[in-house]
Amino acid sequence: MTNYVFYKEVNILSEIENFIFALINKCVSELITDLHFIPTARSVTIQKRKDLNVKSDQVISEEYYDRICTYLKYLAHLDVTDSRRPQSGTFIIPMQEKELTIRISTLPTIYGESIVLRFLYKEYILPNKYISIFPKQTKKLIDIAKNMNGLLIFSGPTGSGKTTTMYSLINSIKQERQLNIITLEDPVEIKLDDVMHVQINEDTGLGYDVGLKAALRHDPDVILVGEIRDVKTALLAHRAALSGHLVLTTLHARDSISALMRFIEFGIPLRELQQSIGCVVSQRLINLICPICNGLCTKDAHKHKFHLKSCLLEILSGNELADVMHKLTVGERILELNQNLNKEKVRAYALGFYNYEQGGKR
Predict the structure, then answer these.
(1) N or C, which end of the chain has less CB nearby within 10 Å?
(2) Residues 99 and 140 in one domain
(3) pLDDT tens digit string along 274-314?
(4) Within 10 A of 147 (CB to CB), how many other CB atoms are there?
């Protein structure tokens, strides 16, 4: 009886492994960005996200999902015995000629542990010309980054391409000269040669604030902070920018004004912010009209390696940033700049780059 159970377990594990890798391969072929496992009262629904669209793929039993959940947590070196608290991590899957990094996030729900996998495609380090639809915006952002000092804040919803934009920028400036670049992320999403990547791990005491403080003692030229989450990290990033470093970071906010207001809420005086902030960027990721399909893309278009996504950017810098700062100082009411993004979207539509029916991160 014992041997029978043992061999039965081995066969099930093999089946689970095959199921997971087949599912991941299918997601990659469809350019899926996120895979959701959603527990319900009697089963588990698997959903796929591509841009704004989330579609149900299939339904599996609770018993089958328990093994899938355990195996995915094992791949990411998470605590397989703990299902009562959120966990996150990454694992790497070999994919033909390259590797695919997958980020895993777990979340306890009333029906069990939910898992979301995010596929981090390395080819998303974009050449400069693909950072924004409009070349002038791209050039403006690169010129700001080349000043090599100040705080560059990127805001926007999840999946709007903030990390991709930051990596494209540091990849661009490091091509021109040798720099000491340090990134602090949870998790590290993209790996670049000649860049020191630090994995943030709150459980071991290596939070963003601790990591940033240590990075500043490591003689950096450029620091990339994955996300500003608290007052300590915001203050350290601000002080690093004041001391002559180039600091790139992200913040969850609706638009540039909201991101600026978040830093003020962290307790940083406006006069000091005027000296540290180089620019505040709000961005949205949109689908471009495919030159082959003239609309929604087919697999043939992907074979030709067209870049079918790009960003709309609202860049608050220079005189416009100074004007906003002044209005905040004197308490003058400021209209939200999110309208600028809508204007850029209309412009992209008018020039034939964008189709409203294809959607995009709002």
Answers:
(1) N
(2) no
(3) 899 999 999 888 777 765 565 555 555 454 444 567 788 88
(4) 12
Name the residue type at position 319: N
Residue in the block written with tokens 């966990």: 87
Mark whether 109 and 167 lie in a shared domain. Answer: no
Identity of the residue numbered 237? A
Least confident of 81-85, 95-99, 205-209: 95-99
Q: Is the pLDDT of residue 2 over 50?
A: no
pTM recorded for the entire structure: 0.77
Q: What is the CATH number of the domain that holds 71?
A: 3.30.450.90
- Name the domain count of the chain: 2
Distance between CA atoms of residues 358 and 362, nearest Å? 12
User: What residues make up the domain containing 277?
Assistant: 123-358
Domain-terminating residue out of 73, 98, 120: 120
Highest mean pLDDT among 40-44, 176-180, 328-332, 336-340: 40-44
3-state percent breakdown (helix, strand, coil) of the chain, nearest 5? 40, 30, 30
User: Same domain for 89 and 73?
Assistant: yes
Residue whose token pair is 């377990």: 9
Question: Which strands make up the sheet holding 309-317, listed edge to edge?
Answer: 195-199, 181-185, 222-225, 246-251, 150-155, 277-287, 309-317
What's the CA gap between 111 and 90, in Å, rounded? 24
Contact 122, 300 (CB under 8 A): no
Instruction: Report pLDDT digits (tens) over 14-36.
Output: 889 899 999 999 998 888 889 99
Residues 75, 7, single domain; the answer is yes
